[in-house]
Design brief:
This protein is an alpha/beta fold. The chain has 9 helices and 9 strands. The strands form 2 sheets. Strands 1-3-2-4-5-8-9 form a 7-stranded mixed beta sheet, sandwiched between helices. It is globular, with a radius of gyration of 19 Å.
Length: 327
């Protein structure tokens, strides 16, 4: 096995970061190109096309989930699942909104939901692909409800942030633990890190290097992720941060939901996005944080996560998103 000393590794990292700062993060291809559905029937047709996206053999729980009342209703909601997870992550929460009369769309995000949990396709994921998928999902939702709410967790939270910034036909955007940056890493390293992840050869990273394919948790989630795909997610997040500093977000209302016990996201990056948005209209942005003493994990949505506490999380999310106390 190839070995390298810690000292050399540090020097390689320093030089790599220095070189990567010479590159700008390319975001010119990440603006919206909306084509909203003109009817409920058109939305149904476009949902069928989404089902076949990246159609490698899918896991039984990897399919797009659509809960509908057979017609366009007052409220439609779109859920974007997290990095390497699947639509099943939001199924239980989606059912709660369906009971309240919502049409519910939980799409399978690009390169996700496949039966092979070693994630061979993730290395091809691009920010452009995520951007186009956000556009298409919102376009479809316009035919499902008079009002559209978009909700996302982690990577899905970044995608929701993109929709909040660029889609003026999103009535409410709810970012849950959006993963704009790496935990505790100084913001000054965000741009160099994005460039390094995109410049260096791709590599597979285990979520749990000790347990690897034996890791505990959802059976539909991948065992690890592509470093390059992470760079593409960060690139989309960088675009939101940059544009949010210059232009008011387009969504009608935005809720940012964080978790004081979260060890996966960079809190300073979230604060930067929130500060940028509030500089334009402080009344449009709300922020709620689950207290640390609840000891919630980063994925506070998936019922299959170990030590999950959805009995505490779901009622609060329902109240925040609907604006009503749910009994």
């Amino acid at each position: 096995m190839f070995k390298i000393s810690v000292k050399k590794l540090i020097w390689i990292s320093v030089i790599g970061i220095a070189l990567s700062r010479l590159y700008s993060v390319n975001t010119q291809t990440l603006f919206s190109r909306p084509r909203p559905a003109k009817s409920y029937q058109e939305s149904l047709q476009r949902i069928e096309k989404l089902k076949n996206l990246n159609s490698r053999e899918l896991a039984p729980t990897g399919q797009l989930i659509f809960m509908n009342h057979g017609k366009k209703v007052n409220e439609a909601i779109v859920f974007f699942h997290g990095f390497t997870n699947s639509p099943r992550q939001f199924k239980a929460l989606g059912e709660e909104f369906y009971k309240l009369g919502y049409n519910v769309l939980i799409p399978r995000l690009p390169r996700h939901g496949h039966k092979d949990r070693m994630a061979p396709d993730l290395g091809y994921l691009t920010a452009e692909e995520l951007k186009a998928f956000c556009d298409e999902s919102v376009d479809i939702a316009r035919g499902l409800g008079e009002r559209v709410t978009v909700v996302g967790l982690s990577m899905g939270g970044v995608m929701t942030g993109w929709a909040a910034q660029f889609r003026n036909d999103v009535d409410q955007a709810v970012l849950i633990a959006p993963n704009f940056g790496t935990y505790v890493a100084p913001e000054i390293f965000l741009k160099p890190t994005i460039n390094l992840l995109l410049i260096l050869p791709d590599r597979f990273v285990w979520w749990n290097p000790l347990e690897k394919a034996q890791m505990k948790g959802p059976e539909s989630a991948y065992y690890g992720f592509s470093a390059r795909a992470l760079g593409e997610i960060r690139r989309l997040g960088w675009h939101i941060q940059a544009e949010g500093g210059k232009h008011q977000p387009s969504a009608g209302a935005i809720i940012i939901i964080t978790n004081a016990n979260d060890k996966a996201v960079n809190r300073k990056s979230i604060k930067t996005v929130k500060r940028n948005w509030r500089s334009h209209d402080p009344h449009k942005i709300r922020h709620y944080e689950f207290p640390k003493n609840l000891q919630l994990g980063h994925d506070l949505i998936d019922p299959e996560q170990p030590d999950q506490k959805i009995h505490l999380v779901y009622p609060k999310l329902l109240t925040l998103i609907t604006g009503k106390e749910i009994l």
